[in-house]
Amino acid sequence: MTGADDLPTLARHVWQHLEPLYAGVYFAPEVGEEVAALGYGTQARWPSYFALRAAPLGRATAELTTATFYSFAPARVAAHVPAAWQVADPDAVLAARTRGVDRALRTLLGPSIGSEGLEEAARLARTAAESADVAGRPLAAANRALGWPQEPHMVLWQAANVLREHRGDGHLAALLGAPLDGCEALVSLGSTGAVPVANFASRGWSSTQWEAAEERLRVRGLVDAEGSATPAGHRLRADVERTTDELSAAPYAALGRPACERLVELLRPLVLDVVQSGLLPQESTLGILTVPAPGPRE
User: Fold this and answer.
1) What is the mean pLDDT of residues 273-292?
2) Is a pLDDT exceeding 50 seen at residue 264?
């Protein structure tokens, strides 16, 4: 899998198997039905997205949500927060999220629910999540403070949730150290060709804001006249990703390499179920997940 001492690469590898399991449910109709019952619009993703992901923070302000989500334009966030809490309070949103995730995973994973393999994966992932140091990581801390459910499939999802937010909080630290602000982070990633720039339209930055961020990076020598990453720009992005891996490695180091490799082995068939459902978008704004073409949903 990775070199004997390359824990950052191991952390990335485990995360790449946890992320589809975590993210897939947000595109599941079961989750959509639960938030629609609360009164959220579901024709567009964003009214419920901001509510579902920010709810662990309580009645988060637009400023807090913008800060912790980082790459969304402040105006895009302000269009949905704090209005989200006028539709339903955070506790109600979290309860709906739990119901929707439970229903979605039962549909997606089918016979794997209640299996020994899923139970083992849940134990391993929970061990990693419980060992994570959440100091300076608000989304990871807020989600872990929600506690642990009883059913193994829900434990596994909650662990994936905590670990991905732990990684995400660390990623923001890496961007701050680069330094890259929210818009610059997207421009710099798009400039490398890792993700089509069109994929970032959902983040809500105007063309004027995007062009201004691109010009700031050009002045720093990170993009060329055409907006493509220079060698320095590619090095900066590689440094950001490596720092992200390093900052996310501790929970997996605590779990240990053999247990991490076992967790990946156990996750593979579960991830395949999620991928074959067709729920996940084929192109991710993360630019680092490889999602195979979906097959029919079982």
Assistant:
1) 66
2) yes
Number of residues assigned to the chain? 298
Q: What is the pTM of this model?
A: 0.92
206: in domain: no
| Dihedral angle sign, alpha carbons of residues 214, 216, 220, 224 | positive
With respect to residue 290, please indicate whether it lies within any of the assigned structural domains: no
DSSP 58: S
Strand partners, 229: 223
- Half-sphere exposure of 111 toward its Cβ, with a 13 Å CA cutoff? 2
Question: Residue 286: which pLDDT band, with cuts at 50, 70 and 90?
Answer: low
Which residues are registered as beta bridge partners of 223? 229
DSSP letter string, 204-236: ---HHHHHHHHHHHHHTTSB-TTSPBPHHHHHH
What tokens were used for 241? 């990703």
Is 22 part of any domain?
yes
Domain that holds residue 20: 7-175+242-276
Split into its structural domains, the chain has a count of 1
Cα 124 from Cα 128, distance rounded (Å): 6
Please report the pLDDT score of residue 295 as a whole number.
37
Give the residue carrying structure tokens 């608000």.
138
Q: Which residue has the higher pLDDT, 44 or 65?
A: 65
Q: What is the mean pLDDT of residues 162-173?
A: 97
What is the Cα Rg of the chain in Å?
A: 19
What number is the average pLDDT over the span 261-270?
Answer: 96
CA separation for the pair 195, 174 (Å, rounded): 19
Residue 195 maps to a domain: no
Do 156 and 118 touch, CB atoms closer than 8 A? yes
